[in-house]
Design a protein that fits this description.
The complex is a heterodimer of chains A (110) and B (117). Chain A has 110 residues and is mainly beta. Chain A is built from no helices and 11 strands. In chain A, the strands form 2 sheets. In chain A, strands 2, 4, 5, 9, 10 and 11 form a 6-stranded mixed sheet that branches. In chain A, a hairpin with a 6-residue loop joins β4 and β5. In chain B, 34% of the residues are buried. In chain B, the strands form 2 sheets. In chain B, strands 2, 4, 5, 6, 9, 10 and 11 form a 7-stranded mixed sheet that branches. A 4-stranded antiparallel sheet of chain B has the order 1-3-8-7, with no helix packed on it. Classes of the chains: A mainly beta (110), B mainly beta (117). The interface between A and B is medium-sized, with 20 and 21 residues.
């Protein structure tokens, strides 16, 4: 079992603030790092897949970076909006298997 | 992205009864589907890999006779929790990979909250 850790566990920010979370994973046998956005009662929505050290991906106000040598990924949200409130889940993929973190629960206060 | 539908979204059952959860890929065919379980404040843990037309592969510590998996078609996998007990109360979620996108991304159902009373 791979130990994937996310921090913080939860976060409350004011609308308009920028924020970031961390996903740590073992760098051995690494294949890909996935980020998902998960709203209550909905399916997790895929945000990014990154495979190469130094990868940076961006989708609107959300971006992510990857460091495979030290085993971490950052997710950034610029100018948070209430609709960004969700749990952000990361998963490290080794071969055919996904190993998930426990998620970071983000609440954006209007 | 691809769509995976899971039903029911929640279920309450009596101890000793069985519960069936369905996972369907709506717009693609999935030869393989994955079943996860999540206990409170813990991460999603893979229970088993469901293979169309053959036996499922179970992770260590998961009882195959208790969690019956059937993947009879390319768009449907079912998980049946047999003789459910309160300790089986958990959140169950399925996923599948769309071969049209190279199978690199996992698409999830909405999950099922099971409560055994």
């Amino acid at each position: 079992i791979l130990n994937v850790e996310q921090s913080p566990q939860s976060l409350h920010v004011q609308e308009g603030d920028s924020t970031n979370f961390t996903c740590s994973f073992p760098s051995s046998n690494f294949y890909a790092l996935h980020w998902y956005r998960w709203e209550t009662a909905k399916s997790p929505e895929a945000l990014f897949v990154m495979t190469l050290n130094g990868d940076e991906k961006k989708k609107g106000r959300i971006s992510a970076t990857l460091n495979t040598k030290e085993g971490y990924s950052y997710l950034y949200i610029k100018g948070s909006q209430p609709e960004d409130s969700a749990t952000y889940l990361c998963a490290s993929r080794t071969g055919n298997q996904f190993y998930f973190g426990t998620g970071t629960s983000l609440t954006v206060i209007p | 992205g691809a769509v995976v539908s899971q039903h029911p979204s929640w279920v309450i059952c009596k101890s000793g009864t069985s519960v069936k959860i369905e996972c369907r890929s709506l717009d693609f065919q999935a030869t393989t589907m994955f079943w996860y379980r999540q206990f409170p404040k813990q991460s999603l843990m893979l229970m088993a890999t469901s293979n169309e037309g053959s036996k499922a592969t179970y992770e260590q510590g998961v009882e195959k006779d208790k969690f019956l998996i059937n993947h009879a078609s390319l768009t449907l996998s079912t998980l049946t929790v047999t003789s459910a007990h309160p300790e089986d109360s958990s959140f169950y979620i399925c996923s599948a990979r769309d071969p049209r996108t190279g199978g690199t991304e996992a698409f999830f159902g909405q999950g099922t909250r099971l409560t055994v009373v």
